[in-house]
Structure formats: structure tokens, C-alpha cells
Write a structure and sequence with these properties.
Layout (H helix, E strand, L loop, with lengths): L5 E4 L5 H12 L3 E5 L5 H8 L5 E4 L6 H15 L4 E4 L14 H28 L7 E6 L12 H20 L5 E8 L5 H14 L3 H12 L8 H12 L10 E4 L7
Parallel strand pairs: 1-2, 1-4, 2-3, 4-5, 5-6, 6-7
Helix pairs in contact: 1-2, 1-8, 3-4, 4-5, 6-7
């Protein structure tokens, strides 16, 4: 379905980003992955699906790095047709104790990077298909783009901002072939979340299974994690013809979290 298209997925060397990159690769898209840590393993996983894959190690807190990444993607594959803004970090503290430098980092990576990548991707998307435009901008927000949780002020502010940016981007391009939508997951069993489960188990001197149930029970009525594969399938839907008129939505995959 996406043969000949190019998808750039930020924060895609593990977790949600890698799951989305693999889902788009399975549909024939070229993939540009981005992130820190192991690169060869994730790249091989995406290549195994038959995709052409490139990697750029942009630090998503730096505008110059983002600009270089967008130029690199265009040089590799012509242009970015599908932009998935997924890169994110977390820090937990009460507002009065929140380190200013951590606030700045969370806002930069979780929100401002999506703005910069979007503004740089839009011109080519709007010029595509003989000027009719074709593009898909998918912002990975969070259920925290819809509701709040204590001690996550920067993350919640950034994710609410992502939902707002999604709506404005969708409205500004509503008469074109470029759509913008947000995915709002609840708990997803990524390496970062597994660390939270492990910490809860250690702090309470309980089993990992009990800690998992405790974590899910606090917020997620389904008592099950959303998977990167499920999130990838939603991204594929947004890119399909069925998603042509899905514009500006914040689509939560949260096991009922925001329904409470």
C-alpha cells in the first residue's frame, strides 16, 4: 500500500517508534529511523520486512539536528511522505520541585521537535501529487494529552500541546491531501515502562506480575497493555485511503483510561 512512500519515524530504535516503523515497512514504505542506543538491531528488524532503511541520529532537542535529519531523509529517498513524531522523554516530580532543565528538555523533545519536523516536512507534502498534496503527519501523543496525572507536569503539558498542534496542522491543511492526527496510548510495555514495573516490584517487595497488575489497575480498566504492533496498525490505517478524511483526531488506545 505504501510502496514508493518514505516514512520518517523519530525515536524509533525501540518501543512504540520501532513498532510503527515496522508496520509501515511491512506496507512497503522506505523508512528513516532515528534514536539513541542500539541501531544495528532495530535497523535489521525493519530491513527484514523488505524495506530500504536509513538512520539519522539527530538529537531531537536541537533544531539544527532536526533540520539536518530532514535534509538527510530527502537526500536518501527524495522526500518525507509520512512523518511520525514519536520521540519523547519523561521526568517525574512535583511542580515546585521540577528541575528547570528537565522541564526544558521534556518540552523540547516531546513538543517542539514535532513542530520543527512538521514545518520542515510540509512544503514537500503539499507539493506532492502534482500540487494536490499528499502526506501523513502522525503525532504520538499519549492519554496524557487528554487527561492529567500528578507529578508529570512537563509531560502532560507537552502531550496536551501535541494534541493542540495536531488540530491546528490538520485545519491548516484540511483542503489538501495532507492529514495530521494524533495517537494517544495508555500504558504500552516498552523498555521504559518495564523499568517502572520493576521499580514498583522492588519498592513493594512484590512479584513482577503483581506490580504489573498494580500499575494497570491504577489507570487502565482493560488491565492490559497496548502493544507497539497495535499502534503500528493504527498508523497504517491513518496512511490508508480509509484515512483520507480522518483529520485532527486524538485517537486514544488506552484500555478505557480516558473514558472514566
Amino acid at each position: 500500500m505504501l510502496k514508493g512512500k518514505t516514512a520518517l519515524v523519530t525515536g524509533s530504535t525501540s518501543g512504540i517508534g520501532l513498532g510503527i516503523a515496522k508496520a509501515l515497512a511491512a506496507q512497503g514504505a522506505n523508512i528513516v529511523i532515528n534514536g539513541f542506543g542500539d541501531v544495528d538491531g532495530p535497523k535489521a528488524e525493519v530491513e527484514a520486512l523488505g524495506a530500504r532503511v536509513a538512520y539519522h541520529g539527530a538529537d531531537m532537542s536541537k533544531v539544527s539536528d532536526i533540520e539536518d535529519m530532514m535534509r538527510y531523509a530527502a537526500a536518501q529517498f527524495g522526500q518525507v511522505d509520512i512523518l511520525v513524531n514519536n520521540a519523547g522523554i519523561q521526568h517525574v516530580a512535583r511542580v515546585e520541585n521540577f528541575p528547570v532543565e528537565r522541564w526544558d528538555a521534556v518540552i523540547a523533545i516531546n513538543l517542539s521537535s514535532a513542530f520543527h519536523a512538521t514545518r520542515l516536512a510540509l512544503p514537500a507534502m503539499l507539493a506532492a501529487d502534482g500540487g494536490k498534496g499528499w502526506g501523513r503527519i502522525i503525532n504520538v501523543a499519549s492519554v496524557h494529552g487528554l487527561v492529567g496525572s500528578a507529578e508529570k507536569s512537563a509531560y502532560v503539558a507537552a502531550k496536551h500541546g501535541i494534541v493542540g498542534l495536531t488540530k491546528v496542522t490538520a485545519l491548516e491543511n484540511a483542503t489538501t491531501g495532507v492529514t495530521c492526527n494524533a495517537i494517544c496510548p495508555g500504558w504500552v510495555l516498552t523498555p521504559l515502562v518495564q523499568k517502572q514495573v520493576d521499580a514498583k516490584a522492588a519498592a513493594g517487595n512484590i512479584s513482577n506480575e503483581a506490580a504489573t497488575k498494580q500499575l494497570l489497575g491504577e489507570k487502565e480498566p482493560s488491565m492490559q497493555f497496548t502493544t507497539p504492533e497495535e499502534l503500528g496498525a493504527l498508523a497504517v490505517f491513518f496512511c490508508s485511503p480509509a484515512g483520507n478524511n480522518v483529520r485532527g483526531v486524538a485517537w486514544n488506545m488506552d484500555g478505557g483510561w480516558a473514558a472514566q
